[in-house]
Design a protein that fits this description.
Length: 252
């Protein structure tokens, strides 16, 4: 039986200058997978996501997303960027922010009832529908993250790419984001970038380490030596007990 991959990179090399940021990257993420990219600052994680979205073009190698080119697949990929360019004080409602995810090239500036219904469904998904008409600026950090995830969901994606979804939120909020992402993973493939190996090792089935080269590990392989390899000498050790099997993943 052939395996269905949502993300396939073969021999991808890319550099902003002559110096490559990513070198000969090979990667396959199966449909339904929950995978994470980890690695040191400047290791090329965000660059890898931008290549997957077709926002950057590889110097060598090929990228297949949802069985087609990144450009063609883009409408079926929900993307939450690392730092939202949205001014947190900008006077927009929660609904306005989610509707931004429904905007298409050449689309009108007004939104149809269908758009509004779809945006409300996404807010229900992240348990924020009662706040649809609240000002975005009045929300907590964790609620803002949820709204941005709802915006990424608004295009009804088959694949969700999240760049640092847990930055600037406290452990309790991280836990609720974690629960929410696991629920979403029942319906779509998720790839997230995170510095937080503690968070990642609880959630995902495989960890993709990016530091110019790329290595994929099952989360069960994560240990102090490997973490040092990923992040360099000075790092916080994260202990976790976690097993992966074909039937899914579970905690000891
Ligand atoms: N637009 C750009 N022009 C030139 N160099 C860039 C550009 N964007 C990123 N870089 C460089 O490419 C390298 C990889 O950057 P990237 O943002 O992909 O890393 P990252 O792993 O996401 O880092 P972080 O964890 O800090 O977000 C870095 O050395 C960065 O300085």
């Amino acid at each position: 039986m052939s395996i269905d991959y949502d993300i396939e990179l073969d021999g991808v090399t890319f550099g902003y200058t002559r110096q490559p940021v990513l070198n000969n990257v090979r990667l396959q993420v199966e449909k339904g997978e929950f995978a994470s990219i980890v690695g040191p600052n400047g290791g090329g994680k965000t660059t890898l996501l931008k290549l997957m979205l077709g926002l950057l073009k590889p110097d060598a190698g090929s990228i297949t997303m949802l069985g087609t080119t990144p450009e063609k697949a883009r409408l079926k990929i929900g993307y939450m960027p690392q730092y939202s360019h949205l001014d947190p004080q900008f006077p927009v409602t929660v609904m306005d922010v989610v509707l931004m995810g429904r905007m298409r090239k050449g689309a009108m500036l007004w939104h149809s009832k269908k758009d509004r219904d779809a945006a409300m469904e996404c807010l229900e998904e992240v348990q924020l529908s009662p706040m649809a008409h609240h000002m975005y600026s009045a929300l907590s950090g964790g609620q803002k993250q949820r709204v941005l995830i709802a915006r990424a969901l608004a295009c009804k994606p088959e694949l969700l790419l999240l760049d640092e979804p847990t930055s600037n939120v406290d452990p309790e909020v991280q836990q609720s984001l974690f629960d929410m992402l696991q629920k979403l993973n029942e319906k779509m493939t998720i790839l997230l970038v995170s510095h937080d190996l503690g968070f990642v090792s609880q959630v995902v089935k495989s960890v993709i380490c990016v530091s110019r080269e790329l290595v994929v590990h099952p989360t069960s392989e994560l240990n102090g030596t490997l973490i040092k390899e990923i992040y360099g000498g000075d790092c916080r050790l994260v202990r976790h007990d976690h097993r992966c099997s074909e039937g899914g993943h579970c905690h000891d």
